[in-house]
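Section 5: illustrative case.
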């Protein structure tokens, strides 16, 4: 395929935007080459500036769960835009989407809307700290909760220690309040509880991890976390920015039948516009300003265009009782197909899957946490990524990302993709 125009546009962007992109992973640093500039997209397909057509397995990192330019969402946004795009005053549609979200998600009474998943997670831990009067938080190595300071912390050599900042600009003072545990390892959490008695406000976790490939929780792991939190009076935060309205109507809470104390949303909830949200029971949500002492605000929060897109998306998902089953079936179909062709080509690999999230890891070891995910062969992944691109299939330009399956994919698209993996695998 030819990427002349994309390359030229990237060069132009680089002179006025750091790295030519507004979010780092778009820059293809992990796989090499120059990023593809999108011209438009419809359903399961992207059309780039050079006229290439690609089957899309990123789908804006999740939001386009029903495909690109989904007509009801597009129309809702157009109609709203005609009536004014922002007021900084309450509008009825904010209550409508809040009521719908509260009815779809278990165990929440109130929800507040923000503008990104980052803001949702940042606000959720502030609320947890305000509510409990404690400072420290536990996160898991390899889980991503947006780019606010407290979360840019990664495991040192012995994970069960104070984190060290993962980025210049994050202070040691902030880093010392973020404790790191190992995903799927309940003992690592217990050890942190022991060492930090009475200091921990909350645990935040991706109930299915999606930012180190797709890593489902082991049987009982989330339940063990819930029990530990109950025992120690610590809040459990599910970061469902990726899994919310994707794994089930009620997200991971519903799928695994486990209640979280605070739930964060993003991605699907905005239908492709910039939206995040966090939600909890009344006793916790009433701690927020203007009712309570924990401050949180936003000039564009609850923006009418964003709410129109989100409400239309949630309605579509709520009114289709089969959609999550269909998505899971399509993903399972890919899983089976990939396994067969990769085995036929004798490629060492592991495939992880949960609902409509799936990832291929070029490793022999089961991928259950950050360490095992990092053992994947990145050279093989690079070749795989560029090979798939040549075949007309766009997957995330990093081995640490899940694929996001959209309902717009047909079984012909899935067969095409499996055959593409077959062709690429024969050359790995
Ligand atoms: C994408 C993501 C975020 C951050 O959301 P943004 O909208 O990019 O700020 C937070 N948590 C998880 C689990 C995510 O996947």
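Designed sequence:
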């Amino acid at each position: 395929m030819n990427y002349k125009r994309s390359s030229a546009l990237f060069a132009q962007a680089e002179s006025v935007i750091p790295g030519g992109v507004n979010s780092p992973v778009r820059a293809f640093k992990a796989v090499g080459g120059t990023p593809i500039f999108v011209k438009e997209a419809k359903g399961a397909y992207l059309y780039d500036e050079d006229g290439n057509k690609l089957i899309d397995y990123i789908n804006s990192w999740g939001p386009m769960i029903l495909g690109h330019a989904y007509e009801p969402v597009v129309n809702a946004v157009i109609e709203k835009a005609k009536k004014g795009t922002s007021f900084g005053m309450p509008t009825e549609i904010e209550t409508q989407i809040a009521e719908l979200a509260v009815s779809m998600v278990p165990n929440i009474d109130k929800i507040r809307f923000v503008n990104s998943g980052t803001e949702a997670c940042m606000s959720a831990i502030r609320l947890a700290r305000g509510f409990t009067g404690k400072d420290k938080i536990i996160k898991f190595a390899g889980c991503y909760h947006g780019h606010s300071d407290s979360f840019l912390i990664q495991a040192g050599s012995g994970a069960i220690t104070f984190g060290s900042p993962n980025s210049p600009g994050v202070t040691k003072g902030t880093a010392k309040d973020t404790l790191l545990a190992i995903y799927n390892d309940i003992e690592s959490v217990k050890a942190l509880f022991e060492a930090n008695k009475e200091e921990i406000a909350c645990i935040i976790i991706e109930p299915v991890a999606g930012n180190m490939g797709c890593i489902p929780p082991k049987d009982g792991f989330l339940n063990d976390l819930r029990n530990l939190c109950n025992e120690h009076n610590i809040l459990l935060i599910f970061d469902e920015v990726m899994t919310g309205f994707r794994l089930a109507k009620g997200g991971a809470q519903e799928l695994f039948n486990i209640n979280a104390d605070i739930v964060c949303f993003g991605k699907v909830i905005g239908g492709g516009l910039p939206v995040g949200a966090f939600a909890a029971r009344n006793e916790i949500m009433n701690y927020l300003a203007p009712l309570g002492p924990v401050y949180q605000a936003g000039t564009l929060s609850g923006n009418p265009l964003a709410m129109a897109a989100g409400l239309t998306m949630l309605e579509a998902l709520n009114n289709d009782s089969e959609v999550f089953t269909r998505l899971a079936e399509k993903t399972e179909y890919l899983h089976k197909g990939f396994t067969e062709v990769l085995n036929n080509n004798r490629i060492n690999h592991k495939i992880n899957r949960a609902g409509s999230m799936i990832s291929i890891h070029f490793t022999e070891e089961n991928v259950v946490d950050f360490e095992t995910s990092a053992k994947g062969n990145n050279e093989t992944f690079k070749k795989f990524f560029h090979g798939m691109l040549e075949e007309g299939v766009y997957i995330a330009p990093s081995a640490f990302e899940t694929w996001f399956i959209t309902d717009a994919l047909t079984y012909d698209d899935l067969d095409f993709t499996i055959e593409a993996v077959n062709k690429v695998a024969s050359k790995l």
